[in-house]
């Protein structure tokens, strides 16, 4: 076996780490400029059981008790724009930086008609690493709402 985290053919595999949060109270994310991603505003709350992660009320999951692990990260949510019709997307950031390949497809959203986006990716995390959802208005500086959302991390 190559590491202590490998699963033997006969025996038990290590306990997974993970947790999830949902958007408990959506809020408007102020967009300063078109094409600039901003951390999604609003209040988040833990959802279900968690192990070896801390879930903050400020749109953040932090790995707090595991050696380096490859984690499956899934986000799904709905985005709305303050006015007009604009192209919006969601992005997953690790430790304040965009993760390559972790941007949702862009959706053309008309104000008052939120549309769904999702991100599904494997991410290597160590103790202290944190994940956050950012939103981007690609077209204008009209503000964005993460109306609903859920971020799940397991590994």
Please, could you describe this protein's structure?
- By secondary structure, the protein is mainly beta.
- The chain has one domain (18-154): Jelly Rolls.
- 0% of the residues lie in helices and 58% in strands.
- It contains no helices and 13 strands.
- The chain has strands at residues 18-26, 28-29, 38-39, 42-46, 53-56, 60-63, 69-81, 85-94, 97-103, 107-110, 115-125, 130-137, 144-154.
- The strands form two sheets. Strands 3, 5, 6, 8, 9, 10 and 12 form a seven-stranded antiparallel sheet that branches.
- A hairpin with a 3-residue loop joins strand 5 and strand 6 (60-63).
- It is elongated, with a radius of gyration of 17 Å.
- The two termini are 18 Å apart.
- Residues 1-10 have low confidence and may be disordered.
Overall outline: elongated
The radius of gyration over CA amounts to 17 Å
> How many domains make up the 3D coordinates?
1
| Helical stretch tally | 0
First-residue to last-residue Cα separation: 18 Å
What's the total number of strands? 13
CATH architecture heading: Sandwich
Percent of residues in helical segments?
A: under 10%
For the biggest sheet, the summary is:
7 strands, antiparallel
SS-based class:
mainly beta
> What fraction of the residues are assigned to beta strands by DSSP?
over 45%
Task: List the uncertain runs.
Answer: 1-10
Look at the structure and give the CATH class: Mainly Beta
Mean pLDDT: 90
Helix-strand sequence: EEEEEEEEEEEEE
- Please name the CATH topology: Jelly Rolls
